[in-house]
Amino acid sequence: MVKHKLTAFFLKEKAKGRLANRADPQRMADFCLATIQGGMLMGKVKRSSEPVEAAAREAMAHVRSYVVKSKP
Prior knowledge:
Strand content: under 5%
Mean pLDDT: 94
Number of helices: 3
Helix content: over 70%
Distance between the termini: 37 Å
Low-confidence stretches: none
Number of strands: 0
Order of helices and strands: HHH
Largest sheet: none
Number of domains: 1
């Protein structure tokens, strides 16, 4: 369900022209989920929130690479 919601979000953003044409909403959703799940697993093993926080920061940086810069 989460993957479908993320995919729908990225599809809408792409349709509005906010994401680059090269952006693949389904792959982006898979990437976000896998990154966060991996960070959560590492966090449990290390008993620390740092891996989750680092994974979230890196996922956001990657997703931002698809954002289309608006012209002033």
